Amino acid sequence: MGFGGISIWQLLIVLLIVVMLFGTKRLKGLGSDLGDAIKGFKKSMGNEEDKPAVEEPKGQTIDAQARKVEEPTKKD
After folding, report:
1. pTM over 0.90
2. Within a 10 A sphere around the Cβ of 27, how many other Cβ atoms?
3. Taking the CB of the first residue and of the last residue of the chain, which one, N or C, has fewer CB atoms within 10 A?
């Protein structure tokens, strides 16, 4: 007896049908994409614990453009 009343032969038949439908290259790509997604998720979950909820600014910067100051003209 297999998993939940499914025999090993039934599992092999289902696996064979899946391989025939998708092909081994597509299943390999799907597996590697799934693995990369899980690794990325674990990495992001680990990094969130290290960072504070609100990041404090390290320093204030002023966004300003330099303007040319013109000399006032003298009226004669």
Report:
1. no
2. 13
3. C
